[in-house]
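Quick sanity check, Plasminogen-like:
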Amino acid sequence: MLFDTCDLKSKMNKKLTLIISLFVVFLRGFLSELPPGNLTDFSVCKVSHLGLGYTGTIAKTESRVRCQTWSMDMPHKIDQKITDDAFPFGSKKFSKNYCRNPDRRVDGPWCYTMNEDLMYETCAVPLCSFSECKITGPGSEYGGNHNRGVSDRKCLKWSKDRSKVMSNGNYTKVKKFSDYLFPDGSANKAKNYCRNPDGDIGRFFF
C-alpha cells in the first residue's frame, strides 16, 4: 500500500473555518476558548491550502520576487474578473500587495509580481498548525502526533528518500513536498506524523 488515510477528528466545518479566518480580529475571544495547542495567529498563516481567508502581510513570491499592488495595473494588468469582493474584507486596496487567492487557485495564495518577465507566482504562505484535530476536510493544517493510518500501518518519515518507497513489492517514486507545505515548517520536523502536504482529500501519509 503506497499511502493510507488517518482517522482524525474534524473540529469545525469549512464554512466556520472561512468565517474565522476572514474575521479573526473579531473572534479573538472565541479563539481563546479553543483547547491548548489549537491557538494560532491566522494573520501569519493559512488554514487550508487554498488560503482563501489568509489576511497576512507576506508580499513576496516563493522565489522571493516582490508582489505587485492589487489595485494597480503596473507592471501587469490585473484580470478584470478579480474584483474587490474576492478579497478578505472586500477590498483590493486594503490587500495592498499582499499574497492572496482571489480566484481560488489550487496552489493557494499568489500575486502578480514586479518582475515584468514574470506575471504571477505562488507565495510560500505557511500552514497554520492545529495539534488536537483537523478543522478542514483535507486536514492540511493538522499538526498533531498521530502516526498510524486506518489500517494501523505506521507512517514513514516525510524526510525519507521518496524515490525508493516500496509499494506492492515494487519501488515507486513519490513527489517530494516543499517544507512550507507542512504545518510543522519542514518535512524533517513533521517526522512520521499524519500530514496532508498536497491538500488531497483523504491522503494523509505514505
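Posting the structure with no commentary besides this: The first strand starts at residue 110 and ends at 112.
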